[in-house]
Amino acid sequence: MPSDVLPETLVVGGGIGGLSAALCLALRGGTVTLVERSKSFAEVGAGIQLAPNATRILRRLGVLEKIQPVVVRPRRLVLADAIEGRELTSLDLTDFPDRYGAPYLVLHRNDLLSALLEGCRSNGVALHTDAHVTALEDTGSGVTAGCADGREFRAGIAIGADGLHSRIRKLFADDEPVNSGFVAYRGAVPMEQVERHADLRDVIAWLGPGLHLVQYPLRSGRMYNQVAVFRSQAYLRGDPDYGNPAELKEAFAGCSEHVRESLGTLSIDNRWPMLDRPPIPGWACGRLALLGDAAHPMLQYLAQGACQALEDADALAEELAAAGQANRTPAEGLAAYAARRAPRAMRVQRTARTWGEIWHVDGVAKLIRDELLQMRDVADHKHVAWLYDEAPPERSTS
Amino acid sequence: MPSDVLPETLVVGGGIGGLSAALCLALRGGTVTLVERSKSFAEVGAGIQLAPNATRILRRLGVLEKIQPVVVRPRRLVLADAIEGRELTSLDLTDFPDRYGAPYLVLHRNDLLSALLEGCRSNGVALHTDAHVTALEDTGSGVTAGCADGREFRAGIAIGADGLHSRIRKLFADDEPVNSGFVAYRGAVPMEQVERHADLRDVIAWLGPGLHLVQYPLRSGRMYNQVAVFRSQAYLRGDPDYGNPAELKEAFAGCSEHVRESLGTLSIDNRWPMLDRPPIPGWACGRLALLGDAAHPMLQYLAQGACQALEDADALAEELAAAGQANRTPAEGLAAYAARRAPRAMRVQRTARTWGEIWHVDGVAKLIRDELLQMRDVADHKHVAWLYDEAPPERSTS
After folding, report:
1. A51 and A104 Cβ atoms separated by less than 8 Å
2. How large is the ipTM?
3. Are A375 and B371 within 8 A, CB to CB?
4. Is B210 exposed, middle or buried (0-12, 13-18, 19+ CB in 10 A)?
5. Which of A50, A73, A228, A264 could be a cystine partner for A54, CB 3.0 to 4.6 Å?
6. What is the pTM of this model?
7. Cβ <8 Å between A364 and B372
């Protein structure tokens, strides 16, 4: 039964953010069309971390239950020294349900996508693949999206969830992706191919000067996820072939045996330059709004990309419903969504950049960083509570 | 009564190190001649900090009692943020006599020099000023020192205590002073000229990116000592007029009002480039040995320059006496002195460099540093105990 308070919505982009937004709206009775440029809803990539700020939303969406068989509930987040191979500090994750009201999970990106997709399908979202939106117009009374193949979609509002290289963001800002000069190789491999691994109950990040390696198990421990990231000297020199596998190996040459050996099972099929964009607060304009990476692409150091997209999706549906119930316009609903979400997402973007710097320091800064991490009380949550806590009660939206 | 175990000693240099060495040897009955290049035993400079590793030696020398009327016993060592003007951490100094068996003191350099000089005089050290040693020879059976004015001094051994620009060190190493690129302005002013000051019971170091200001009271609080240090951009550019007062003012322009105003009472008569040298372990060769800054010139960040010279003086006298009592040669005594002292002094040199880097960090490193300092338990002495503790019991010198 269509909602009488939610505008008919076109979601552009079928990644985690777009599918989550479509599902959130559909579950509130909204009529949603989602268009995805690719031929299918699979993502290249591997593991994903979901913190309580994301899993409590997934629980409300009924998705948490669906992914339960394929998630891993890690015991700890561990920061370790990639050079000396010793642990620096850790965060106990086992008490997260008590502390934050939701668990910390890791899983394969495609398992999350499948569950979101299944939710969209069973809640009546109209899904279109191979639909590349090349024109999007706010007509004043609605939106019109034109595809490269001539198809046209109409709705009351449109959500640009078209990722880092968002075409729709161009309507909001004239910025470009910022290359951090770091390159990632990532992938998940069957556990039987892995000779050595860290404690399978942990998510572990090995930190070194200008590099790091993140490792954790997926799919009930049947797969091992690895992400190796390093500052490319070739990029700094302007070499277009920057960050190739030879440079990867060279970058990690000074690391501990465990870290070096881990590279042997790392997929080198894709080189991922690590990009973000400067934070912008203006995600909504008239009947259009941005969501997920299109709104706030961030570096991966807080593992919050998908989590923030889920927060967007949840807030979007809530603000649109609140606007409808209060007889405010959809545009006012989108503005309320952006006003509510932008400050926090911008903070996460900025903190992710800073956290990346902290992970990669060298020299005396590394000396201080390691001392700080080792001195840190492992029971102290002051650096993460702001991320994982339930959002403060909704402002009154007068 | 001359000692029958100590060799007759020529000390070259009448600074804190040279006078301390002469006094230590004289108190053990040694026959000591000290030659100083200048016309008097006054030092340009201002305040000096004496940690327990120095004051416990001064107590044994009878000097602590003499300087008592002119010292200040500060309550705390404080590290503060020069930009934001807030305290970062502190170390309580009031329990030092209980904890380390000796107090932490600050005083005017000349007050310490006077007391050491008085000790030398009353214990029969032959003191010669205006004696510029230009040639020093180990003859195998003794040493001969020739002065610029033709005077010649002979002794059983010679100690090169001729400071950072030591001429005698050239016999041991071909290094040169290393310019850190930092420049200091320092001086003590009568308290009535000081409009604003930090708590007079504290030694306070204001830390900023590429700069710091140290302040503490002298002479029972009648004078105020200030040292302003900054990284000279002009030095980095190769400008010979680097670190001039205009650059000083510019470097501190972004500091808190208190720090900026303090520069108004700072003496700008002397620009002091901050120099040290690489650590070397070989301080003794035959009948010659180095001591104090000639052996281990260090950056000032641990305030250990004079303290380490006092440790040298004490160890030198002890090792020479031990060698004499065991019928070992003076050269063996000097070798034992160097072997005992060099590892520690080299560690202090290296740590002073690192500490300087930590004081002057910027960006994310400053963020981490400030967090670490603020998180630090003020009762934790792990970073200083190795400096201030009584040296471990003397090794058996077989």
Report:
1. yes
2. 0.79
3. no
4. middle
5. A50
6. 0.85
7. no
